[in-house]
Amino acid sequence: MYQFSLKAFSIVFQKAVEKAAPDEKLKDRVANLIDSITFSVCQYTARGLFECDKLTYLAQLTFQILLMNQEVSAAELDFLLRSPAQTGLTSPVEFLSHQAWGGIKALSSMEEFCNLDRDIEGSAKSWKKFVESECPEKEKFPQEWKNKTALQRLCMIRVLRPDRMTYALRDFIEEKLGSKYVVGRALDFAASLEESGPDVESQGKKLGYTFNNRNFHNVSLGQGQEVVAEAALDLAAKRGHWVILQNIHLVAKWLGALEKKLEEHSENSHAEFRVFMSAEPAPSPASHIVPQGLLENAIKITSEPPAGMHANLHKALDNFTQDTLEMCSRETEFKSILFALCYFHAVVAERRKFGPQGWNRSYPFNTGDLTISVNVLYNFLEANTKVPYDDLRYLFGEIMYGGHITDDWDRRLCRTYLEEFIKPEMLEGELFLAPGFPLPGNLDYNAYHQYIDAQLPPESPYLYGLHPNAEIGVLTQTSEKLFRTVLELQPRDSQAGEGAGAAREEKVKVVLEEILERVTDEFNLPELMARAEERTPYVAVTLQECERMNVLTRLMQRSLRELDLGLKGELTMTSDMESLQNALYLDTVPESWARRAYPSTAGLAAWFMDLLNRIKELEAWTGDFAMPSTVWLAGFFNPQSFLTAIMQSTARRNEWPLDQMALQCDVTKKNREEFRNPPREGAYVHGLFMEGARWDIQGKLKELTPPLPVMFIRAIPAEKQDCRSVYPCPVYKTRQRGPTYVWTFQLKTKEKPSKWVLAGVALLLQV
């Protein structure tokens, strides 16, 4: 949807020139012009962007202005966007993770940040206070670091508290461009009209355009209404009427004709003639159908549903009236369950913002699900003497809402919410929908709205059953995505200053040579097969892994050598070579490698270090084919095959049927260094991380994915598995969850398992 034409830009530009304040002094007049043009273009563009992209656009705008004015150093901006980190370091201070310390070391190697690492170690107390403060971007940095430039302070916050970067960036833009650029406010529709939305009818009324005055045409497309729309446009163009065309995305075949028709009317039509169109954005670029011409010449305004629990709960309740509340003969039960359903509806819709920890996949829950559920509730209460809680939960959770859900873990989550919200206790006044938010009693319609305003705690992950860390995770990922996007937007050609193109090639060559130098030779499979005396399940897994590693390293070496020749001019550059060059420059894993590798969310440098560790692990296995004292489960392309091998060896040894086996998982109290030998059967496994909770050991606060102690995994007959007080915990390869699912581990728990379900607790093989 983000298409803007030069023609539209020219009009905005001209209007901004007219609006700029006059001044006698040339210098001040130029400043006024620049300010007016920058702000007008910024407003015109931002109005057509979705909330999630506005800050990215503002950041790009600010950085480009500062670079043009030579107010910031390109090297410091490059650090901010990439945030490189030295890998494999151990943090000497408890308030910084190893990864953050790697970032500090990388930053300290720049001249302006010399000794930052020593200073943090030496004055740990004041740095700890700074790092652990609620809003570090508002605090002063310790010692002389508070005198650093705004961009240098951003670089430090990016390393120390990446979760606060969206806030820090807003402050930075405000400081550099002015506060009018960052005030978040609803757009004045009347102002957009001057330049010609969501509120067309009421604006039309004020200006005398109404259905009754016969100068206002509202056509809802999608039911063969195209002919009506064309007639309305022809009439309106002649007489200066307004036309609304709703849901133009539903009539793909007609859009070409619409574009032509508007082009015809753009000349010689009545000056008051206006057309307003609404459309849903396409879910993927491939299914995008609104023609470029329509998008480029239109003034685009986005309209998004309200964010946050407060707005969503009011919005859910808005689907009903006082009459709805009075329609059921069993008033108390009906009202209680209706309110609980509204809360449930708001929770499932808004939980999306927590990414994969919220839902594995994104679902189109809509108000229809809620209103139909309330109708079902009414029918069931009228027809039964006792409230059929089980039936209601099943209908809501498996059919009305569950009908959208395609992932089993998400289905479990939906079911658990309903088990917590809709149960007999709700009528005894003992039910809390969230900490500090009890289910209200029997009230009238307006009183329910007032109850939400008065009683609902402020927005936090607790309202969804999640731990506050979930928010830190979302904020960190949002800022990572923002900087990655801005980095990809940086100009690539040599116009970005002399030698930028050459510097780019240099950088690529360095990365290319380092990878070629450090990647090891292939595993000699025939020799390994000859050496393995017994083809145990474990040996089979190891050989399979070596084979897959060979395919990957072979591809890496071949593609890098080709690119090397291309850069030297000895081979013609192909599009594959160009995308490889791009990936090396942007520190991302090349697409062709990722297809042959394993899921990973890491940048190229960290991914390559991880690859070398995996090769080392395989070399140790194939040295004597003996089981290591503890196994790094994440080191496998296919961890399932190793877990299956545990069951196969036990089944063979005891002559048990394999399909009746299960894995027993016990978390030990030790770390990997404390193990000397493997167990007699099964395996000790290290390198797992927990998201959403932590195992009962002392850890760091704000640590999003605390490591798990070593786990002892062995196979037992399925019927011997203890299912009491355990939480069936999904294991995923990465934080993307969903398709990276590996296995389910039964973890012992003292709390109710439902607590961990709502908190989205999972084990991850890599973070």
Distance between the termini: 33 Å
In the predicted model, the low-confidence regions spanning at least 5 consecutive residues are: 185-190, 494-498
What percent of residues are in strands?
Answer: 5-15%
Largest sheet, in brief, is: 4 strands, mixed
Rg over CA atoms: 31 Å
Computed structural class? alpha/beta
User: pLDDT average, as an integer?
Assistant: 91
Give the number of helices: 30
Spatial sequence of strands, sheet with the most strands = 6-8-10-7
Percent helix, as a range, is 40-55%
Which term fits the overall shape? globular
In total, how many beta strands? 13
Question: Main attributes?
Answer:
alpha/beta, 4-stranded mixed sheet, 13 strands, 767 residues, dynein intermediate chain binding, globular, dynein light intermediate chain binding, 30 helices, DHC
Q: What do these coordinates show?
A:
It is globular, with a radius of gyration of 31 Å. Strands 6-8-10-7 form a 4-stranded mixed β-sheet. The protein has 767 residues and is α/β, with parallel strands linked by helices. Helix 3 crosses helix 22 and helix 8 (150-160) packs antiparallel against helix 9. Residues 334-470 form the Dynein heavy chain AAA lid domain. Residues 476-765 form the Dynein heavy chain C-terminal domain. It holds the Pfam family AAA_lid_11. GO terms for molecular function: dynein intermediate chain binding; dynein light intermediate chain binding; minus-end-directed microtubule motor activity.
